[in-house]
Write a structure and sequence with these properties.
The protein has about 280 residues and is of the alpha/beta class. The chain has twelve helices and nine strands. It is about 40% helix and about 20% strand. Helix 6 links the parallel strand 5 and strand 6. Bound molecules: S-adenosyl-L-homocysteine (SAH).
């Protein structure tokens, strides 16, 4: 199949790239191929693609996997993909949907294997989608996403840095994160303002695990709720939110040898897990 540039294709379809939906289309098929190659595909997988756009990644995904379910919010693009590009390709199913409203767990129940996720993510939905991914972790086998480089840095940053936040802790807890390669704005039409990075995310079981992962999320979110405040002011003063008295929570900090006068952003992932587990045990007493 001959490759048509996004600019030409959009003109033919009478469309303009929509900023509000983060539309930045990959210009070069070899870059699309590199992104797809970052997934471990053996022709048996079901891939859910987020934001197929004009199908740059979809074409290669359909060559490597058994089935591609592509979620595209823009009706005009979804129509082009369904009625033209993949009209005769039974492996590709185009759904005109908001990926944030999609039930990944339900989709995985129709498949014998955990889902593979892929996408050049629209930047507006990156954070909420990653939170959704955390919730759907059990249904997911692997994911490769292109995100803004700054977001990639944030996800992978260590404790004590200004980039370290709720998503860094939760993503590092739930997934092994690997940086595959970066792409400059010149690889997209229209060119975005910033560099992009391709990340591979593999679900993992962190040891020791959090006994209650929902509680871990709540503890981390509370610790980061006010970045300049110490944990005395974010967690201890809100101990009741966790079913504890401030004294009890202070005792937990002492037992873990963590000074609650520190800011939440200085805690390692393992310390957040320990804190969450101790809070859970404290609730039971
Ligand atoms: N994968 C293509 C397009 C990436 S641009 C490529 O690499 O060339 C991001 C795409 O996500 C756009 O097609 C945009 O319409 C779509 N999109 C934006 N918000 C979305 C949402 N909430 N759910 C699904 N798709 C969305």
């Amino acid at each position: 199949m001959a490759f048509t540039s996004p600019k030409t294709l959009l003109r033919r379809l009478g469309l303009r790239p929509r900023k509000a939906w983060g539309q930045h289309f990959l210009l070069y098929p070899h870059q699309a191929r590199r992104i797809v190659a970052a997934l471990d595909l053996h022709g048996e997988e079901t891939v859910v693609e987020i934001g197929p756009g004009l199908g740059a990644l979809t074409v290669f995904l359909a060559q490597e996997a058994a089935k591609v379910v592509a979620l595209e919010r823009d009706p005009a693009l979804a129509r082009f993909l369904e009625e033209e590009l993949f009209l005769e390709n039974p492996r590709v199913r185009i759904l005109c949907r908001d990926a944030l409203a999609f039930d990944f767990r339900e989709c995985s129940q129709n498949s014998t294997q955990p889902l593979t996720l892929a996408g050049n993510l629209p930047y507006q939905i990156t954070s909420p989608l990653l939170f959704k991914l955390v919730e759907a972790k059990a249904a997911v086998g692997q994911a490769v996403f292109m995100v803004q480089e700054e977001v990639g840095d944030r996800l992978m940053s260590p404790p004590g840095t200004k980039d370290y936040g709720v998503l860094s802790v939760l993503m590092q807890y739930h997934f092994a994160l690997e940086r595959i390669f970066s792409l400059s704005p010149a690889n997209f039409y229209p060119a975005p303002q910033v560099d992009s990075v391709v990340l591979r995310l593999t679900p993992r079981q962190t040891a020791p695990p959090a006994n209650d992962e929902a509680l871990l999320s709540r503890v981390v979110k509370a610790a980061f709720a006010h970045r300049r405040k110490t944990m005395n002011n974010t967690l201890v003063s809100r101990a009741a939110d966790f079913g504890l008295t401030p004294d009890k929570l202070r005792a937990i900090f002492t037992a873990l040898e963590i000074d609650p006068g520190r800011r939440g952003e200085t805690l390692s992932v393992a310390q957040f897990v320990a804190l969450s587990n101790a809070i859970e045990e404290g609730q039971l007493k």
